[in-house]
Automatic annotation (TrEMBL):
Gene3D superfamilies: YggU-like. Belongs to the UPF0235 family. Pfam families: DUF167. InterPro entries: DUF167 (IPR003746), YggU-like_sf (IPR036591). This is UPF0235 protein SAMN05444141_10395. NCBIfam families: DUF167 family protein (TIGR00251), PRK01310.1 (NF002348). It comes from the Bacteria.
């Protein structure tokens, strides 16, 4: 369990489990946390409000910037109306995982 990460490598990128807090004072990827069932996730905050997809666009842009990929390579694929979301980031999986690990350390 200690080695589990909140992302899964895919052939064309990675999937990241994120707990998003909208209407925050700043846009920030904070740290790795855990869900109530013990599964890991990345805690993130955005200034955008959760209306008309604004917070989803903001979290996708936040991760795109942190991972140095185009905004078009990042999208929310699950949990669009929930706080816990799954993001897909397209790119070389090992490289993306290393960048995310470095960003969180």
């Amino acid at each position: 369990m200690a080695d589990e990460r909140p992302w899964k490598l895919q052939a064309d990128g990675i999937l990241i489990t994120v707990r998003l807090t909208p209407k925050s004072s700043k846009d920030q990827i904070e740290k790795i946390g855990t869900q109530s069932d013990g599964r890991p996730l990345v805690l993130a905050r955005v200034r955008a409000v959760p209306e008309k997809g604004a917070a989803n666009k903001a979290v996708a842009a936040l991760f795109a910037k942190a991972l140095s990929v185009p905004k078009s390579s990042t999208e929310v694929i699950a949990g669009s109306t929930a706080r816990i979301k799954t993001l897909r980031v397209l790119g070389e999986p090992q490289d993306l995982a290393k960048r995310l690990e470095d960003h969180l350390s």
